[in-house]
UniProtKB/TrEMBL annotation:
Name used for this protein in its record: 4-hydroxyproline epimerase
One Pfam family cited in the UniProt record for this chain: Pro_racemase
Organism classification: Bacteria, Pseudomonadati, Bacteroidota, Flavobacteriia, Flavobacteriales
Family note: Belongs to the proline racemase family.
Coiled coil segments of this chain: none
EC number(s) recorded for this UniProt protein: 5.1.1.8
Molecular functions per Gene Ontology: 4-hydroxyproline epimerase activity
Alphabetically ordered keywords of this record: Isomerase
PANTHER family tied to this protein: BIFUNCTIONAL TRANS-3-HYDROXY-L-PROLINE DEHYDRATASE_2-EPIMERASE (PTHR33442:SF5), TRANS-3-HYDROXY-L-PROLINE DEHYDRATASE (PTHR33442)
Organism expressing this protein natively: Aureibaculum marinum
Length: 334
């Protein structure tokens, strides 16, 4: 059987976003979290075929758009990626909104504002458009919080490292500069990937069933690692290398990662409400982050509402076939 997908390919600050405009499945569920579960059970072959080699690559990431479940909202989104289907993705949101507005896939109820249903919750978005191009997208993310502090794990070559875990739409183990880790500016991307593959597995083994979202237990475990370093531009607030999937370092500063980082810094008294947080990616591209306000989760845990602003560019129109007589129809990893 041959399945055909129309896609618009873009990148957000260097990281890919493949927006599937035709060929996505019809999913069951009362919200995007339930639809995400349905997709994972029956349609994950679409993600694998479109994200992994030979049609994608280690960093490939994308989205499929759905009608909203609540008439007040503009649309709903499923994130697909080499790592799975993320509950939330910041760079994916910025790229998808840019594509959707420039290509007329969404007509917002209020121009310049969009309400998006993600599996992790409602995300409110603003964007600025000039001459048919979107200049920037700012998303107000789901509630983000510091989940644990000063945990330890043994890292190959480095020895014991200390880390915090924070949630910004995904759970991040955040490794700050410390005696056994001198910062990403002293390491290659390959080294960070090598360490992350082992350390993430060790963290989830050492702290089983520890990181489970109190309001949605389908969101669980440390899925991403964030390693910190000195910024390239001294006026930036910080720089990170975010590891996701099995071999990817985010080329953007990572929206959910930046949200988690701001939740961690705010909880530790190192970032104030309304203070601008300019976060650099491994390649030096930037997001502008901000703690919009403080809040609590339903269980009373302190949290923040973060915002992230960035830009994206469309670079291609793609018609992709997944033909099940192709031995690599559903991708491969080396
Ligand atoms: O921007 O949230 C993000 C993200 C998650 C994984 C890669 N990018």
């Amino acid at each position: 059987m041959k399945s055909l997908f129309k896609c618009i390919d873009a990148h957000t600050c260097g990281n890919p976003v493949r927006v599937i405009t035709e060929g996505g499945p019809i999913l069951n569920g009362a919200n995007m979290s339930e639809k995400r579960q349905h997709f994972l059970k029956e349609y994950d072959w679409i993600r694998k075929g479109l994200m992994f080699e030979p049609r994608g690559h280690d960093m490939m990431s994308g989205s499929i758009l759905f009608p909203p479940h609540n008439a007040e909202n503009d649309f709903a989104i499923l994130f697909i990626e080499t790592s799975g289907c993320l509950p939330m993705c910041g760079h994916g949101t910025i790229g998808t909104i840019t594509v959707a507005i420039e290509e007329g896939l969404i007509i917002p109820k209020i121009p310049g504002k969009i309400r998006m249903e993600a599996p992790a919750g409602l995300v409110e978005i603003e964007y600025k458009k000039t001459n048919k191009k979107v200049d920037w997208v700012k998303l107000t993310n789901v509630k983000s919080y510091l989940a644990a502090e000063n945990l330890t794990v043994d890292c190959p070559e480095l020895g014991e490292i200390t880390f915090d875990v924070a949630y910004g739409g995904n759970y991040y183990a955040i490794v700050d500069i410390q005696p056994n880790f001198t910062g990403i500016h002293n390491f290659s991307a390959n080294k960070i990937i090598q360490y992350s593959q082992i350390v993430r597995e060790r963290i989830n083994k050492k702290y089983p069933a520890t990181f489970i979202h109190p309001e949605n237990d389908t969101i669980r475990d440390v899925t991403h690692m964030m390693w910190i370093g000195n910024p390239i531009n001294p006026t930036s607030s910080g720089r990170n290398a975010v590891f996701y999937g099995d071999k990817a370092i985010d080329r953007s500063p990572c929206g959910t990662g930046t949200s988690a980082r701001m939740a961690q810094l705010h909880a530790k008294g190192k970032l104030n409400v309304n203070e601008e947080f300019i976060h650099e990616s491994f390649i030096g591209s930037k997001f502008i982050g901000r703690v919009e306000k403080v809040t609590t989760l339903k269980n009373g845990v302190n949290a923040i509402v973060p915002s992230i602003q960035g830009w994206a560019k469309i670079y291609g129109y793609n018609t992709i076939i997944i033909d099940d007589d192709d031995p690599y129809a559903f991708g491969f990893q080396v």
